[in-house]
Amino acid sequence: MTASPDYLVVLFGITAGATGAKLGSDEKELILLLWKVVDLANKKVGQLHEVLVRPDQLELTEDCKEETKIDAESLSSAPQLDQALRQFNQSVSNELNIGVGTSFCLCTDGQLHVRQILHPEASKKNVSLPECFYSFFDLRKEFKKCCPGSPDVDKLDVAAMTECLNFEKNSSASRYGACQVEDMGNIILAMISDPYNHRFSDPERVNYKFESGTCSKMELIDDNTVVRARGLPWQSSDQDIARFFKGLNIAKGGAALCLNAQGRRNGEALVRFVSEEHRDLALQRHKHHMGTRYIEVYKATGEDFLKIAGGTSNEVAQFLSKENQVIVRMRGLPFTATADEVVAFFGQHCPITGGKEGILFVTYPDGRPTGDAFVLFACEEYAQNALRKHKDLLGKRYIELFRSTAAEVQQVLNRFSSAPLIPLPTPPIIPVLPQQFVPPANIRDCVRLRGLPYAATIEDILDFLGEFSTDIRTHGVHMVLNHQGRPSGDAFIQMKSADRAFMAAQKCHKKTMKDRYVEVFQCSAEEMNFVLMGGTLNRNGLSPPPCKLPCLSPPSYTFPAPAAVIPPEAAIYQPSVLLNPRALQPSTAYYPAGTQLFMNYTAYYPRKEYSLLHQSCSTAPQVRPIVLATSLQLLILAVSLHSLARWSECRAWPTILELRKFLTSSKVTSMQPRMDLYTQMTRPGLYPKNGFVFKGPSS
C-alpha cells in the first residue's frame, strides 16, 4: 500500500498480564480490545469502542486488575476471541460505510499489540484473523518520521509523544486503555495538520505464511537476525516453527531444524528473521509453549545458521527449485529401492510432484544408497495422505515418514556427501599438551573433578582448589563437554606432583561449589587422556570408549590431521596425546583473560552408544581403548564380542585382561581352541576347556 488510506483505525489491546514494554511476553491472553476510527480526509475522530474478550484461563494478575478495573466475573460472560473479532469487523464496516475505493488501515502504539498478542493467540486458538490485521502503521515510527528530533523509537510511547506535542494531560478518560486511544487519536490529527502535514504510507506487514527456500553457504547473514529455539517436539516441522513465531516475519527458508550425529532431529532449530527488530521480539517468546512443551529461545549467529542450512549441491538446488512444495522424508528404504517403487508406494491419493523428478535419494560419495530419500508433494492434503503411510511396508521393510524442510535436505546431503567410505566414530577432540607437561603414565599427578555446576568457570575451580591452585601445571585445566557441546560437569586438573594431587583429592573431596558438592579423585595422565577420548573412569577402573560393532575401523586407517591447525612444533608431541586434532578453535567462553595459564583446549566427550564390555570390567593402565596386534586377533575379538552381546544365560563377565591374555596366548594359534571358545559362547556352561565358564544373564 503506497497510497495513503482514507481512514485509520486506532487499535489497543490489553492482556491479563503485563503491560507496556512487556506486553505479550508472559503469554497471557487478550481480555480487552479498544478501537477508534480517525477520518484522515476530514480530520475527524470517531467514538471509542471496546469489547471484552473471554480468555480460556480466567486468571488476572493483580497489576492487571488494578489498572483495568476488570474482574473475572465480568469476563466470564464476555464473547470469545473469534466472536470479539467479528464484532470489531462489523463495527468498523458500519462506521466507515466501506464502498468502492474506500480504504482503511490499523494504527497501533508500537508492534506488540498486533505481532505479540493478536497473531500468536489467534494461531494457538485456530482463529482466522481478518485481512486488515496483516498490515498496520506503527505510530511510534510514524511519529519519528514526522518529528526527527523526538526520542528514539524504543523510548517513545503515547505519553512521550503527547509531551513532545505539548498536549495537556487528558483527564476525561481515566481508565487504562481508553486514555491511550484518546491520546493516539489526537496525536494523529496533529501529525496530519499544519505544520507537520504528515502522510501515512508504507505500513508494516505481517507475512501470511512461511516461505521455504534454499540458502547458499556463501550468503552473508546478519548475526543480529538469528535465534536458536530449543525444546521442540521431535515431529515438529518448519511450519510448526513459523506458527510458534506467528506475527514475526521469518526470512525465506529461514527455519532450519537441527539434526544429531545419527541424522535425527535433536529438538533444536535455528530461525532467521528479516530484521533485528523481529529477532528481539522473538527473544521475548522465551519459554512460550508449543502444545504442552515450553520452547527456549536464545541468540545465535549467522555462522550457526549457515552450518545447518547452507549448501552448495546443485542436485539439492535443482530438487528444491520448485517452491511452495511440501517435503516428506523417507527413512529405512531398502538399498535396492527404485523411484518407480517409491511412486507406487504412495499411490494415486498422494501423487508426487513431477513423478520421479520429485524424489531425491541420499547416497554416499561412492554412490551407495543410505536408505533415505526426500519426496515433494504439491499441497498439504497430499502430504497428509502420504504421512498416513508411516511405517507401511515397502518390500520387507517398514518405512518411516516425517515432514521435512529444505534445511534438513541440505544437512542430510552435506553429512553423507562428506562422510568417509568406512563408517567411523566421530574423531574426538584431544587436548594438545606440550611434551614437557606430559608426565609418565604410572604417575598419578592429576585430579578429576566430578559434579561441577554447569555454570562453573575457571575462576570457580581455582577458588575451589584454594591453596592447591598454585600447584596446577601451565595449561593444566581441561573442561569436558558432552556431545552437544555443553558442560558435562567434569574437569581434569594436572598437578605438579603426585603428592600434591593426593593432598588435593583428600582435602577438596566433597567440598561445596555453588551449593553443589564436588567429588575429587586422584588419577593419572593416561586415565585423563583415556576419558577425553571417550572412555569412562570410575572407581572400578576404566571402560573403553564407545564403539559400534562391527564398524571397527581397520588398524591401518587414520584420521587426516589438518596441517593448518597444528603448528610445526607439534611434531614433538607424544602420539598417545596428539590424536586426530580437529580444525576447531577453542571457545572464548572457556578462556578468561586472567586465567590463560590454567586453560587448555575444551575436550569433546562423546555420547555413549555402545560399550565393548560391561561398565564394571577393569583394565590395566597399559591397555589402550582398542589395541589389536593382528587381523586374526581382530577377527576373534569381533566374533567373541558379537557372541557376548547375544548371551542370554551368562552369570560372569570376563575382564579385558582375561580376554587379552587369552587372545595373545598360544591357545588361539590352532583352529580347535578357537572353535572351543565359540562353542562356549554360543552354548554357555559346556566344556570349559580354555579356562572360562560363561553363565548367568547378560547385562
UniProtKB/TrEMBL annotation:
GO biological process per UniProt: mRNA processing; regulation of RNA splicing; RNA splicing
InterPro entries registered for this protein in UniProt: ESRP (IPR050666), ESRP1_RRM1 (IPR034427), Nucleotide-bd_a/b_plait_sf (IPR012677), RBD_domain_sf (IPR035979), RNaseH-like_sf (IPR012337), RNaseH_sf (IPR036397), RRM_dom (IPR000504)
Domain of life: Eukaryota
Keywords: mRNA processing, mRNA splicing, Nucleus, Repeat, RNA-binding
Record GO terms (molecular function): RNA binding
RRM domain: residues covered: 225-302, 326-406
One GO CC annotation: nucleus
UniProt cross-references to PANTHER family, sorted A to Z: HETEROGENEOUS NUCLEAR RIBONUCLEOPROTEIN-RELATED (PTHR13976)
Name of the protein described by the UniProt record: Epithelial splicing regulatory protein 1
Organism (species): Balaenoptera musculus
